[in-house]
Amino acid sequence: xxxxxxxxxxxxxxxxxxxxxxxxxRRDLYAYVCSLLGDPAAAEDVIAVAFERAYRRRRTFxxxxxxxxxxxxxxxxxxxxxELRRRKRVATLATEPPDEQVAGPEDGAExxxxxxxxxxxxxxxxxxxxxxxxxxxxxxLNGGEIAKVLGMSETGVSTFLYRTMGKLREACDAER
Amino acid sequence: xxxxxxxxxxxxxxxxxxxxxxxxxxxDPEHAELAExxxxxxxxxxxxxxxxxxxxxxxxxxxxxxxxxxxxSWSWSLSAHWRASAxxxxxxxxxxxxxxxxxxxxxxxxxxxxVGPSRPTVGYSxxxxxxxxxxxxxxxxxxxxxxxxxxxxxxxPASAAPKSLSAAPAPREGHGRDLTQSARLGLQARAxxxxxxxxxxxxxxxxxxxxxxSSHVTxxxxxxxxxxxxxxxxxxxxxxxxxxxxxxxxxxxxxxxxASADITSHVDNTAAALAALQxxxxxxxxxxxxxxxxxxxxxxxREAARALAQIDRDQSELQRLRHRVADSTISVTVQAPPIxxxxxxxxxxxxxxxxxxxxxxxxxxAAGVALIxxxxxxxxxxxxxxxxxxxxxxxxxxxxxxxxxx
Lengths: 176, 406
Description:
The complex is a heterodimer of chains A (176) and B (406). With 176 residues, chain A is an all-alpha fold.
């Protein structure tokens, strides 16, 4: 569902746009914030705060500064970082998978091993690299959107992602 | 993946393989391992529980009505706090500007320097009482000359001096020095405002129990206005008088000079000479009473007469010196530019050229005001933008500090 390209109109129109954005991004946003905080309960609170802030500020959204998805993820990122600061702890990516993410019986032993190696390799990345992975693979943002969220250039994001994937592959190979 | 700068082909191919994998498209076998890694990473992403999504859906449908209160109140109180701070800062800035403006008006600027109440240190206490003598105010703005004696003059220290002076020195005020004080004041009046300024000068002098020794006021159409005043006020009221003259409604100060001279030795010498002459005369009179010789009596009478004449001169001199100490002189010069009468103003009525002229004048004034406003607002705006930019950077760094070292 696309929420971009529609002109700002009445209050009801802006509400519809917000609701569409919410439907489109809630799972992606959760994946990103939960990866950033490493705490599903805290992630739920932060997600709620982020959507509420976005709702309050929906009229101030300026399309010239980026698409709505990047804008919303920026709000969520600030809320998550504020939460991290409040808790006085360094962000850690959840290296332990949630219960529903455990490899199922249909997965082969090789795939299970591979997944375990990837989780271990993720733990060796820096917080910023884990955040990049969360934005790319957890939230499914494209390079331009990630650049907006992180305040980097698109080329910088590409290079950063390429290097991070290289590190992950090396770490996975070392784990196996 | 789009980028503004060219990426290395190897990097570009790897990123395209990742994007293709995530979109379910086939990739080159060369990137199979990378594609597998991308799929695992995507599958590893946390998934929200249905219960949480249901709760969130309800809150969104309610448009964050009730549960939003906590966050809204927090953000509202934060913004209210900022608003209160901004209001207080604005009020403070306005207060400072007002104080600066008021203090600037109360201390007229003379040749770029602020002339305050400071003046040469003298031993006389300044009286701030403003009487309502009013004498001199009726002299009119076109008076030419003369010693217009103030009705309040008898109250001045000068008039309180004894008519017949004794040789004993009068008690001195302050630090026991006899100082003469004088001042010169230059005023600039607006065009055509010479007469009102002159009237204000007369009013001030009357109120301060002073005397207008002389005045000259000239005001003619098309010519610059000019007025001079020679004033005398009790020394104790000199400071007050100067301050009031500096704040006349229709003029501003362009020049002020204060001068003082110590004439203590002169007064003391004159008093001593007078005492000696009086003693000499008394001695001569005693000798005259005691002598029987006609020739000697004639000589003593002549000497006593000469001593008396000298006593009169010294008494006059002493009285003059004490007047100079008790009364201070102020010389005031007022200038005003000539009154310019535009032709169309004199004739009245509406003409196109007059309207055009007035419109041009208004535009000129508006442009000037806009320029001044810009001169103030542009630097202020730049400072505000710079501060906001620095603040956003600091805030971003603080937040990203929570991620720990990269």
